[in-house]
From TrEMBL:
It comes from Streptomyces swartbergensis. InterPro entries: FAD-dep_OxRdtase, FAD/NAD-bd_sf. It comes from the Bacteria. Residues 27-382 form the FAD dependent oxidoreductase domain. SUPFAM superfamilies: FAD/NAD(P)-binding domain. PANTHER family: FAD DEPENDENT OXIDOREDUCTASE DOMAIN-CONTAINING PROTEIN, SARCOSINE DEHYDROGENASE-RELATED. GO terms for cellular component: cytoplasm. It holds the Pfam family DAO. This is FAD-dependent oxidoreductase.
């Protein structure tokens, strides 16, 4: 079994960018070579800016190369909670931002000709308990009835049209969500950005940052110091000390994934015949899908811990048990990959983007960032060029997480809280 992300292991390797020269003046410096940073770099360079991306590790090392590869259309908090919190019109605007985000991703795939198995196969929300089907029904009524979106309710009696499992009490299908090979997409985005002049510096952690004036900053790395007219912090669950204001507003929560050996088309047709992006309805949910080469990818917040090889292995065992409970057909299937990553949770589980003390940032995707990080890269390019309305999240206050001073000591407590909520749900 490999403890590396399947997506990065099966994507083309880019050139070595770890020996680039760092110094002088740039128009825009971007911290983080994930989907936010690379998409912003591409869109800013298209406008003629001289853009440099600084990455602590390598392209896609963060959540962007480690996720489920699901570009779904839903908010992290769910539509009904969003309506209760923000009112119908605002919740609708936030939801539609996710639809725009999947469109942005699809457009980029086409424009840049990125070979990444993008397909709008749809999303399957599975009811883990009988009462959860009522919740899905209410969501379906709003989405289909009031918003005119393409959703369908699947009763338990018809569940085998969507999934080869008896574990669930019904489901809701949403048609516009997509799946993709996110390793190929992230690497493809890096090549597209580099192709129009973006310089990507790998193994180049930004260690210090000093404000010069307005949005102008000096960035210090071990390979050199650079001055930038604008800086975008695109560091997600890896946001560290140089970006203190952002760091204490983001909880890096571990999420873990296993991928089986290739299962063959026939078995995959039995497990998920329509190749939907599936997730269960618990707070500590599981998400799963078929990969482009017919493996099952199965993920979840198996444990409230940070990713490390030991932690990933423990989480892998928990996920394997959960996977075989859903799909007993896979009891003897070999697990080829197991890895973990950091989800960047904000207090309100909403995206936060804007400018603070002259630093631009886009963070807090809360587990729904494949599409939104890509989209926010594009939107931040507009925002940084003086169009505030380009930022759909501009009115949300970005609250500090109480008691968060750096290391996330509070994760086991948060885990206990969510487990309790699932028991009571
Ligand atoms: C296991 C897992 C499963 C997920 N599944 C899904 C899914 O199926 N669908 C979905 O929509 N979302 C999913 N997500 C969330 C999604 O992957 C992220 O929201 C998204 O990739 C965030 O992209 P990003 O570019 O903002 O951050 P990242 O991809 O995390 O990139 C941030 C980068 O910043 C770099 N960095 C940090 N500090 C510095 C520094 N000081 N100097 C230089 N570089 C620095 C890091 O090394 C990192 O590479 C998942 C996340 C995880 C962890």
């Amino acid at each position: 079994m490999k403890f590396t992300p399947y997506w990065l292991d099966t994507a083309p390797q880019g050139p070595d960018r770890s020996r680039t020269d760092i110094g002088g003046h740039v128009d825009v410096a971007i911290i983080g070579a994930g989907l936010t940073g690379l998409s912003a770099a591409l869109h800013l360079a298209r406008k003629g800016a001289n853009v440099h991306v600084f990455e602590k590790d390598t392209v896609g090392f963060g959540a962007s190369g480690r996720n489920g590869g699901m570009a779904t259309t839903g908010l992290s908090i769910g539509l009904r909670d969003a309506v209760a919190r923000y009112g119908f019109d605002t919740a609708k605007a936030y939801l539609m931002a996710y639809h725009d985000a999947v469109d942005t991703l699809e457009t980029l795939v086409k424009e840049e000709n990125i070979d990444c198995d993008f397909a709008r196969t749809g999303k399957l929300n599975l009811a883990s308990k009988p009462a959860h089907l009522d919740g899905l029904r209410k969501t379906h009524e709003i989405m289909s009835g009031r918003l005119g979106l393409e959703t369908r309710l699947i009763p338990r009696s018809e569940i085998h049209t969507e999934i080869g499992s008896d574990r669930y009490h019904g489901a809701m299908v949403e048609a516009r969500s997509a799946g993709l090979h996110v390793g190929k997409f992230t690497k493809g985005l890096a090549e597209a950005a580099a192709g129009i002049g973006v310089t990507i510096h790998e193994k180049a952690p930004v260690e210090k940052i000093r404000r010069l004036q307005g949005t102008r900053h000096e960035l210090v790395t071990a390979r050199g110091t650079v001055r930038a007219d604008q800086v975008l912090v695109a560091t997600s669950g890896h946001t560290g000390r140089p970006f203190r204001w952002q760091q204490v507003r983001i909880a890096p929560v571990g999420s873990f994934i296993i991928v089986t050996e290739p299962l063959g088309r026939d078995l995959c047709d039995m497990l998920l015949p329509n190749r939907r992006m599936a997730s269960s309805s618990m707070n500590l949910l599981n998400y799963f899908r078929i990969t482009p080469d017919d493996r099952l990818l199965f993920g979840g917040r198996a444990r409230f811990a940070m990713s490390s090889q030991q932690s990933d292995a423990k989480s892998g065992r928990i996920l394997h048990k959960a996977m075989t409970e859903v799909f007993p057909q896979l009891t003897n299937a070999r697990v080829d990959y197991c890895w973990g990553g950091r989800v960047d949770m904000s207090m309100d589980r909403m995206v936060h983007a804007g400018e603070q003390d002259g630093l631009f940032y886009s963070l807090g995707y809360s587990g729904h960032g494949v599409q939104m990080a890509t989209h926010m890269g594009k939107q931040m390019a507009e925002y940084m060029n003086g169009t505030p309305a380009a930022n759909p999240w501009r009115d949300l206050p970005f609250k500090r997480i109480p008691g968060h001073f750096g290391p996330p000591w509070f994760l086991p407590f948060a885990g206990g809280y969510y487990k309790f909520k699932d028991l009571m749900k």
